[in-house]
Write a structure and sequence with these properties.
434 Repressor (Amino-terminal Domain), 5-stranded mixed beta sheet, about 350 residues, Rossmann fold, 6-stranded parallel beta sheet, single chain, 3 domains, 11 strands, alpha/beta, about 15% strand
């Protein structure tokens, strides 16, 4: 008897073992394993308890063959250097885990049409139920990218595509919040230190909204400065701004740029916000610790990631029956000490 017990213990528990322990059919155990909602809660709890007692591990490969699903989603990204992308990925991972999905993450440093198509093909071959693309470049709007036809996909991008599901923070709404805040403080116009508008949809949208908001308010539109997301670009632009007497307000395309601008203004002994008000974008964790604490546009990265997964999950569950189109999420302006009412030079 002792030998038999040891032998039984060494054998992995089967679906039949779980069914016998829980007093249900093997079909019921299968339904619980696959997450069907048709099982009564009390029965489900009994089956789950039996699984735990027997240390039962469902055969995921066999389950996928039966259901056609793998409980895995693919995520395609270009970089982890962007703090927004990292926060969105964290939200996707959390939301996916809560629904029993794992993540297959692929990077492509080359945001070209061919590179993106190849990465999507890799994900398709790696047996995922759906794909989320965290897109930061213009490539998709300019070229034709081949998406896998058998599975749904969601883009995290601020552009509208007639045939694709997309979601993102509303970049234009956020930029308008920043510019109108400064104009509301009495500043005659607002200068802009831009991100890489030639390669980034977000940078282009923020710059376009800055320009349009000034035009809507009848304000002069200065020539934008800057060409990257880095603080070094902000620093160089800040040095040019510090040398001018006609600049009283600056909208920076992100908080890293604003950090560089603040450093340049401090070095030139230009008072912030006494002489020049500065607004950023993103609300990085450190932004409240800048000197002075930075007024900035807060993107809800968590909601972007959660909404992207929710849309993908709905498409997976419903066989792809989710209407294409862009879902935009509003931003919030966080007012701190880097902005103040306009004071005319010499006053």
């Amino acid at each position: 008897m002792v030998r038999k017990a040891a032998h039984e213990k060494s054998r992995p528990a089967s679906i039949g073992d779980v069914a016998a322990r829980a007093g249900v059919s093997a079909q019921t155990v299968s339904r619980v394993s696959n997450g069907f909602a048709t099982v009564k809660p009390t029965t489900r709890e009994r089956v789950l308890a039996a699984m735990a007692e027997l240390d039962y591990r469902p055969n995921s490969a066999a389950r996928a063959l039966k259901s056609g699903r793998f409980q895995t989603i693919g995520v395609l990204m270009f970089t982890l250097q962007n703090i927004g992308s990292v926060r969105i990925l964290d939200a996707i991972t959390t939301a996916a885990g809560a629904e029993g999905f794992s993540i297959d993450l692929i990077f492509t440093g080359d945001p070209s049409t061919g590179s993106i198509t190849n990465a999507l093909s890799r994900l398709d071959n790696e047996a995922v139920d759906g794909i989320i693309v965290i897109l930061e470049a213009h490539e998709l709007s300019e070229h034709s990218i081949t998406f896998p036809e058998r599975i749904p996909s969601v883009l995290i991008d601020s552009r509208r595509y007639d045939d694709r599901i997309s979601v993102n923070a509303d970049q234009k709404q956020g930029a308008r919040l920043a510019v109108e805040h400064l104009l509301g403080l009495g500043h005659p116009t607002v200068w802009h230190v831009s991100g890489p508008v030639e390669t980034s949809n977000a940078a282009a949208d923020r710059a376009e909204s800055w320009r349009q908001t000034l035009l809507d308010h009848g304000c002069e539109v200065p020539e934008p400065l800057g060409d990257s997301w880095e603080s070094e670009s902000g620093y160089e632009a800040g040095r040019a701004i510090a040398a001018r007497e006609d600049v009283s307000a600056v909208f920076c395309a992100n908080d890293q740029i604003a950090l560089g601008v603040l450093r340049a203004l401090h070095e030139a002994e230009r008072a912030v916000p006494g002489e020049i008000s500065v607004v950023g974008f993103d609300d990085n964790p450190e932004s409240a610790e800048y000197w002075p604490p930075l007024t900035t546009v807060q993107q809800n990265f968590a909601e972007v990631g959660q909404r992207a997964f929710a849309l993908l999950h709905e498409a997976i569950q419903g066989g792809g029956a989710v209407a294409p189109g862009l879902r935009l999420i509003d931003n919030t302006l966080v007012v701190r000490e880097s902005t103040a009412k306009y004071a005319a030079p010499g006053r």
